[in-house]
Amino acid sequence: MKTYHKFLLFILFIAYAPVAFGQTKDDAKALVKEGIALHDAGKYDEAIAKYNEALKIDPEYSSAYYELAYTLFSTGKGNDAIAYLEKTLKLDPKLAGAYDMLGSIYDDDKQPDKAIEYYKKGIEANPKYQRLFYNLSVAYLRQKKYTESENYAVEAIKLDPKHASSQRAYAMATFNENKRGVSLLAWCSFLHLEPQTKRSAEAYRYVQYIINYGVKQTGEKNVTINISTDDLNGANLLMPITVVNATSGKKDLSKTDSLTLQLKGLFGIADTFDDKKGDPFYKNFFSDYFKKLAETDNMEAFAHLISLGANQEENLQWFKDNNAKLSALDAWVTATKREF
Q: Which pick of 14, 70, 264, 308 has the fewest CB atoms within 10 Å?
């Protein structure tokens, strides 16, 4: 009889074990979900406690390790998060976010080579994860490896053309490569996406610096152009001439009027800015796009928009008085596809 009872208990355990196992998995998932809500509410210690509870139930639950690492990283405890991220990747080696976080931790810890290593591993695991390309571009930018930074910024933009930070990285990289014309278009593109932040004011200063580079007003009607031997290539030589010609003989121009004419002229020669002579990304995404814009009646609205962060009061009033022009610019942008 005892043998029969043992056999019956064994059969009952086998029958109900999948249900019990499923419930414990569900309990772990529920705890992680609660932890995420607590994290979002700024209750980080309570969130960590929930993740630890989940891991007691299911020690192989990769999401619990990842979310625990993310909360630690978010609270400035990046080094404490490393072990949990490494465990995450053992369980889920394709999780791009874990590589990205590890790269960011090592970047913050002034270990750029280690950061770059993890970003590249992440790209190998998931070549569609945009932030890895962006962060890799920034990491190379900090190391002053501008060609590498430019190349990875291009890939980041291709994956998310409306990611303003990627366009900013591209603008910074090309500026430091002395590709002023290319950088100008990138800064304008960034400002169109992000016209009114602290970064916008900085970006507009770059725009003004590039436009006015080598151009000096020496009198009411006299302007001189000074260039160095490094600028004797077609683009950097042609730009200041174009800027001067854009406003030559025109009186009583406001700052935005001048900017409109200068950008219109520069966008018109954008195909000369490409030192690679045929780079399809630059040609399609930047040069052709801005040349098309220069041929429309939307340049005035565009100039007001990208200078919003620098001259807020004046531009906001202009938008209020010229809402139809701003709407026309928006309509053109919506209808004009930017190719790669």
A: 14
CB 326 within 8 A of CB 301: yes
Short-list 16, 79, 67, CA closest to 40? 67
User: What is the rounded distance in angstroms from the CA atom of residue 98 to the CA atom of residue 214?
Assistant: 46
State how far the alpha carbon of 150 is from the alpha carbons of 43, 134, 142, 172, 173, in Å.
39, 10, 12, 8, 5
Burial call 313-336: b when 16+ CB within 10 Å, e when fewer: eebeebeeeeeebbeebeebeeee
73-108 per-residue burial string, b: 16 or more CB within 10 A, e: under 16: bebeebeebbebbebbbebeeebbbbbbbbbbbbbe
Q: What is the mean pLDDT of the chain?
A: 90
> For the CA atoms of the chain, what is the radius of gyration?
28
Q: How far apart are CA 129 and CA 123, in angstroms?
A: 7
With both helix axes pointing from N to C terminus, report the angle between 130-142 and 112-125 in degrees, rounded to the nearest 10: 160
- Give the pLDDT confidence of 102-140 residue by residue, as tens digits: 999 999 999 999 999 999 999 999 999 999 999 999 999
Burial (Cβ within 10 Å: 0-12, 13-18, ≥19) of residue 45: exposed
Q: Which of 64, 72, 136, 143 is nearest to 104 (CA)?
A: 136
Strand partners, 216: 224
pLDDT of residue 249: 86
Cα–Cα distance list, 80 to 25, 57, 244 (Å):
26, 22, 57
Burial class (CB in 10 A: 0-12, 13-18, 19+), 160: middle
Cα separation, 186 vs 164, in Å, equals 10
What's the predicted TM-score (pTM) here? 0.89
Phi and psi, residue 201, nearest 5°: -60, -40
Q: Distance between CA 2 and CA 227 in Å, rounded?
A: 100
Q: What's the confidence (pLDDT) of residue 233? A: 63
Spatial CA neighbour of 242 closest among 273, 220, 219: 273
For residue range 65-88, what is the model confidence (pLDDT) as tens digits?
Answer: 999 999 999 999 999 999 999 999
